[in-house]
Amino acid sequence: MNWAGLYTVLSGVNRHSTAIGRIWLSVIFIFRIMVLVVAAESVWGDEKSAFTCNTQQPGCNSVCYDHFFPISHIRLWALQLILVTTPALLVAMHVAYQQHQEKKLLVLTGHADPKHMEEVKKHKMRISGSLWWTYVCSVVFRLLFEAVFMYIFYMLYPGYQMMRLVKCEAYPCPNTVDCFISRPTEKTIFTVFMLVTSSICIVLNMAELVYLVVRACARRGQHSSNPSSGKGSFYGHKLSSEYKQNEINQLLTEQDGSLKDMLRRNPGLQEKGDRCSAC
Amino acid sequence: MDWGTLQAVLGGVNKHSTSIGKIWLTVLFIFRIMILVVAAERVWGDEQQDFVCNTLQPGCRNVCYDHFFPISHIRLWALQLIFVSTPALLVAMHVAYTRHEKKRRFRNGEKIDIDELKNEKVHIRGPLWWTYTSSIFFRIVFEAVFMYVFYYMYDGYQMPRLVKCNAWPCPNTVDCFVSRPTEKTTFTIFMLAVSGICMMLNLAELCYLVIKICMKEPRKTT
């Protein structure tokens, strides 16, 4: 399991995200994970071997390094990226659960042929109802993790700047010893770069949150003014007549309508109405 | 996530590019990314270990290295390649959005040929033309900015053999020797030349797009 494996897992989630969510995922993978792997890891590669102290006292080097760098930037970024990308898996689990429910419904209503089962897997889920809440929670957690890690960075490495020289007096160093850090300017440049991309991701997450809330409230407004939407008749007609080609079917269900919506509009199969549970 | 994944992501964009765009992408992957990975990274691999200063003063070597190489060539090239290849994703997003809109219109009852929708090559016209042109413009800007950054940071494109350093804690002025300066100069010039070629390709593509749209318009009016 490595970054490529994480990319494969999260690309699947991408289908059920909003447009802003997809942009956020691209920024994470290209400007954060990729920069970490191809550039930042080699900058911090020799951080301990090139950490030099002006002393010949054995052990002083190690102790001072450990004192000033309790946890390396690279490891902190790796943890941050893993924690920030993982809430998307909540959404993936919820989508999988909903797809499972739809398949059960198909079996109960006698539409359990392989064609319909495939459609359930392939179509994009609408972000409404309980999925909306799961999605919003995942965005809130992402924001929280980003903010927490930015704070941790600030606490551990004040000002986000890497110093050239640190003065160390930890035992067994005799008196105060000058220790020199390797590549401080390059490290500062990459720290600032990762900080900026982190902030961009926070802004994208906030924008996505606002977008979801506004969309949910707009939908509620639409439903309260027009309770019977005319969408059902088109799907009902399509179900009752034969499908012309598999591709038409695929295209229909790839859109925001779900097969569940189609079946729900058949009489006798009414389930709970489509309401905005968020407002 | 590494260069291979970026190649997979950008490979998809290739379908909607012009011929010059496809050549540009090939040059980018073969003459820049591949050279960076298989050759340049090895040349710069021991840049700090083999940076030797004529002093026993601990810390002097670190400080002098940091003073003369604020950011390594390799990292600058990696950032340059990432920034230069990313505008192509704008085009990919626009194409995906156009397809999504067409499918939505089909679902709402308009007649559209299904086979054409899936396999069609998206024509670069209308709003997509603007997106595509903007992406080329951004590519050119990023290339130029990075070429300038290189020139500014390293006073030209040549790697010196010897640098004289007097940053604290070095006592007085100390001679420091850079490892593999000739090989580094060779690769710097090579990457610069390929960067120049990519810029020319981008400019040519921009001209081609502008001329194509200007030629279409007189035909429409007549």
From TrEMBL, chain A:
Pfam families: Connexin. GO terms for biological process: cell-cell signaling. The chain crosses the membrane at residues 21-40, 77-97, 131-157, 189-214. The keyword Phosphoprotein does not apply. InterPro entries: Connexin, Connexin32, Connexin_CCC, Connexin_CS, Connexin_N, Connexin_N_sf. GO terms for molecular function: gap junction channel activity. Residues 42-75 form the Connexin N-terminal domain. It is found in: Cell junction, Gap junction; Cell membrane. It is a multi-pass membrane protein. Keywords: Cell junction, Cell membrane, Gap junction, Membrane, Transmembrane, Transmembrane helix. Residues 145-212 form the Connexin cysteine-rich domain. One of its GO terms (cellular component) is connexin complex. One gap junction consists of a cluster of closely packed pairs of transmembrane channels, the connexons, through which materials of low MW diffuse from one cell to a neighboring cell. Belongs to the connexin family. Beta-type (group I) subfamily. A connexon is composed of a hexamer of connexins. This is Gap junction protein. The lineage of its organism: Eukaryota, Metazoa, Chordata, Craniata, Vertebrata. The gene is Gjb1.
Automatic annotation (TrEMBL), chain B:
It is found in: Cell junction, Gap junction; Cell membrane. This is Gap junction protein. The chain crosses the membrane at residues 23-40, 77-97, 128-154, 187-211. The gene is Gjb2. The keyword Transmembrane helix applies. GO terms for molecular function: gap junction channel activity. InterPro entries: Connexin, Connexin_CCC, Connexin_CS, Connexin_N, Connexin_N_sf. Residues 142-209 form the Connexin cysteine-rich domain. One gap junction consists of a cluster of closely packed pairs of transmembrane channels, the connexons, through which materials of low MW diffuse from one cell to a neighboring cell. Gene3D superfamilies: Gap junction channel protein cysteine-rich domain (1.20.1440.80).
